[in-house]
Each structure stands twice: as C-alpha cells, then as structure tokens.
C-alpha cells in the first residue's frame, strides 16, 4: 500500500513539473509572437514599475499666438513661475468689465427685437468671454458662432475670409454684433464684418475683450472694447498656447524665456 502511494506521489510530481514547463514554454512563445512595439511597451511598463522616481515626461510641442514652440515640460503647473510672468487682468477685473460692456451693448441695442439682434462669437478663444457677456445682456437676442481666418495681405475683403464654420442662420436684415476675445492685426475681424455686410446684414458692429492696438495692420476699430492690451503673449480666459491654459480664470502674460530660444 505504501509503495502504491509513493508511486502515485511520484507521478503527481512529474505531472506538476511537466505542467510548469509547458506554461513557461507557452509564455515564452507568446512573448516571441508579440509585435515589436508591444514588447517594447511591456518593457517600458516594467521599468516604470521598478523606478518610481523616473524622469518627467518629455516636453510637448505646439505654438501659441507668437508661433513659438512649447519649451517647458508638461509637469509644470499652469501658474508656474517658469511659465507665467505676471497676471495682467484678474478674474474679478474681467467680470467687472464684462458687466460694464454688457450694459453698454444693451443700451445701444435697446430698440432691437430678438429676431433682429444676433451676437456672433468668433471661435474658439472667445468661448469664456462670450458666455459671460451674453448672460449679462438685458436685451433679447440670438446667439450664433463662426470660425474663420483671413488671408491676403493687401486688401480687406469678404473674399479674404476662409470660413471654417459658418453661422447657423442667415444674417440678412439683422443687427449683427461680432464678438472676439482679442483684436490684434484686425484682419480677420475687418474681413468678417465686410462679409456680413455683403450678406445683407442691417448693421455690423464688433466687441472685443482685448484690443492689442500695437499689432494692428488694417484700419479697424472695435465698437466695444474691454481692455487695451500691451503687445505681450497672453493666455487664460479662453486664450491658449498650444491648447493649454485656456481654463485659467485670469489673463496672464507668458514669460518670453518660455517660448523664445
């Protein structure tokens, strides 16, 4: 009886050893059949697991108003002293001025009707300013959006506007207020206003949060202006640098050392 038990135990040990060997062989075969990129990713994951204090992720690349590359690693906070030189306009300053602008606009369009007055936001940096502005208007109005860019250096013309997203409704016969977060060269704003005039709008006026007069290249003056902006690279309150910083409540100046080399 003891001999039978010993034989059975020996047989079980051999079966276990063979099963372990087979599992190891299958694992090796599977890894050999993995695509090269998957094996590399698996190796990287193991190294990260073994090294919790590894290096920070590499810097991303992109461009802002200045066209400079993003030179800082993404681990730096948006309010980092390595990126932000100073706050130009605080959130409180902005919201106070937006309320004043809304009062001015409401007074100017007091005689209009909802079907006649449309506020058109120029995407996409305008989204915060537009939302705050229209909620403070006391006159009935419609809201629409357009995405556009200008080209051509010689003249301001409706033919010089590239429409990426058009308004949802026609502007013919309506009082149109074009809203943008900033007017710098003024080319897109001027060409877009000319386009709406050509489409039969009853009137076309403009409102901008920031007026960067030093960069103006065409003769256009916004009808409603929030602040005069110095010739600095600014982010926040909808304005971005390579899609970053849009959600900052303040409008901040980016350090030149962050994007100039």
Structural notes for this entry:
α3 crosses α4 (127-136). It is built from 6 helices and 9 strands. The protein is of the alpha/beta class. The model is unreliable at 21-73 (pLDDT under 50). 35% of the residues lie in helices and 21% in strands. It is globular and about 100 Å long. The strands form 2 sheets. It has a 6-stranded mixed β-sheet with strand order 4-3-2-5-6-7. It has a 3-stranded antiparallel β-sheet with strand order 1-9-8.
Order of helices and strands: HHEHEHEEEHEEEEH
In the predicted model, the low-confidence regions spanning at least 5 consecutive residues are: 21-73
Note the gap between the termini: 86 Å
Give the overall shape, derived from the CA principal axes: globular
Count of individual helical segments? 6
Major β-sheet profile: 6 strands, mixed
Gyration radius, in Å: 30 Å
Mean pLDDT: 77
Fraction of residues in H or I helices: 25-40%
- The SS-based structural class is alpha/beta
Strands of the largest sheet, in order across it? Answer: 4-3-2-5-6-7
Please report which band the strand proportion falls in: under 5%, 5-15%, 15-25%, 25-35%, 35-45% or over 45%.
Answer: 15-25%
Describe the structure concisely for a colleague:
35% of the residues lie in helices and 21% in strands. The protein is of the alpha/beta class and 261 residues long.
Main attributes?
alpha/beta; 6-stranded mixed beta sheet; globular
């Amino acid at each position: 009886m003891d001999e039978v038990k010993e034989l059975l135990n020996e047989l079980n040990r051999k079966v276990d050893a063979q099963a372990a060997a087979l599992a190891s062989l299958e694992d090796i075969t599977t890894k050999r059949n993995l695509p090269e990129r998957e094996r590399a990713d698996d190796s990287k994951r193991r190294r990260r697991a073994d090294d919790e204090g590894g290096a920070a992720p590499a810097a991303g690349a992109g461009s802002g108003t200045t066209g400079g590359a993003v030179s800082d690693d993404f681990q730096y906070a948006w309010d980092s002293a390595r990126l932000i030189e100073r706050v130009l306009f605080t959130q409180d300053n902005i919201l106070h001025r937006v309320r004043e602008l809304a009062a001015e606009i409401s007074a100017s369009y007091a005689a209009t009707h909802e079907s006649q007055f449309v506020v058109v936001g120029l995407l996409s940096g305008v989204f915060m300013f537009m939302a705050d502005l229209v909620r403070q208007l006391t006159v009935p109005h419609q809201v629409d959006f357009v995405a556009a860019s200008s080209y051509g250096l010689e003249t301001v013309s409706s033919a010089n506007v590239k429409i990426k997203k058009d308004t949802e409704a026609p502007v013919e016969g309506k009082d149109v207020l074009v809203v943008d977060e900033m007017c710098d060269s003024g080319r897109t704003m001027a060409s877009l206003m000319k386009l709406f005039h050509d489409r039969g709008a009853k009137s076309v006026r403009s409102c901008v949060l920031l007026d960067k007069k030093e960069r103006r290249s065409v003769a256009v003056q916004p009808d409603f202006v929030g602040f005069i902006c110095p010739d600095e690279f600014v982010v926040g309150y909808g304005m971005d640098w390579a899609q970053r910083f849009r959600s900052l409540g303040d409008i901040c100046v980016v350090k030149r050392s962050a994007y100039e080399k």
